[in-house]
Amino acid sequence: MKFNELLNASGINIIDRGGSQDPAVSDIVYDSRRVKPGAVYVAIPGMKVHGGEFIEQAIKNGAAAVISEKCLKEISVPWAAVSQIRTAAAILGRTLWSIDLSGLTSVGITGTNGKTTVSYLFKTLFDKHVGEEYSWMFGTAGNRLGLKDIDAAHTTPESVDIFRHISDSRAKPRGLAMEVSSHALALDRVAAMKYDVALWTNLTQEHLDFHGSMEEYYMAKKLLFTNYMKPGGTAVINVDDEYGRRLAGELRPEKKLLTYGKSDGADVRIVSWKCDWNGTSVVVSHNGIELNFSSALFGFFNVYNMVSMISGAFALGIDVETVKKALANTRTVPGRMDKVETGAPFTVIVDYAHTPDALVNVLKTSGELTGKRLICVFGCGGDRDRGKRPLMAKAVAENCDMAVITSDNPRSEKPEAIINDILNGIPLDFPYKVVADRREAIKCALRDAREGDCVVIAGKGHETYQEVGGVRHQFDDKEETVRLYKDMEKNDAA
After folding, report:
1. 358 and 454 belong to one structural domain
2. Residues 155 and 300 in one domain
3. Of 84, 126, 166, 492, which has the maximum CB count within 10 A?
């Protein structure tokens, strides 16, 4: 497609344009390092640098044209200035690759906690419903495009990348589950996407370093339901969550709703449940009929994750037997209540919990399933919401027997400074140790654990790195735990 044809066909709002040439276009790219001859370079503003700084580099790499928020009369290739640049990039990609979303059943999942597990549950559901080759998932723990795995740079990819993946795929997706983060919504990363189901899990304190307040955080999440649902799409909302109840009230009567929770008025009501180390079962009532579902996932918070998917499946008209098979086939989600097989006489759990609410959920669940002491290894990420650090400490102190406070991903901050913020929330009478080195902290907890105890290593979950001083080093909590325990056994035997 020629550049001018692409601009005209897309219908994007163009403020100004220039350049006498009309080159053929083969790609839409926002990273100058990925530009190849024939690509249109889109100068998107980033969190730290603006894409406009790399226009000349993109042209040197062969950019056929440039899209920017500013007029670019001095550059050597055709250009267009637009007002909503991420939306423009998404629409240009959708137009260039002729992407039709009408045949794709899509679920967008937002909330503070549970997004990853719920997306995995929907991926398993779509594996059964449309076939694994046609079932896609984008999320924190990775992206699975049919039978192909690709790394996740962000929880939610840019829409233009999603459209490129669809264009490049031999087997076009028929079912898509996506985590949709508040950052992605606030920054228009999902521009031009539309969902059959928009799903709300919950809202608790997180990302206030970016959003500034819980109100702004809520309003960002709400955009999924006001801006990105297909006509006739369904909002699936947890009304046991305070913000979920507010959202449901604000969406009525304009949007089609399906609510879930323990509340009497919920459309999909949680009647009863059972949780142990063998898994979780739940009975729900929908349209006056009680239905039983089971999975290998641990813990009460996974009751909500399961019912999220069950409710979304009902909204999509997927039959109950398919839902039951999907849940029965779901195994541990990487880094979520992930039981580490060490051979120790105590239990070790690795979990991604890095918010106060998520930590409370994991610790309560582990405590209920553990006969003796509960030990938590945790820290807080650097360059993120400092206000939640003492709240994380409070969550630990109120829900376990002792803690080892350590580093998470300190990024550009000093680990000791982060730990000092955490200590502000630790009660004077609560037993804890400070071990800044994460490897040594895990070793310390394993040394302290006795038969029947449970050690929860929280914060990093599926991540296979630790970011210190802006550099990522290989570090996997599960691998480190197994190795450290084996070393301890060898040393004890010697």
Report:
1. yes
2. yes
3. 126
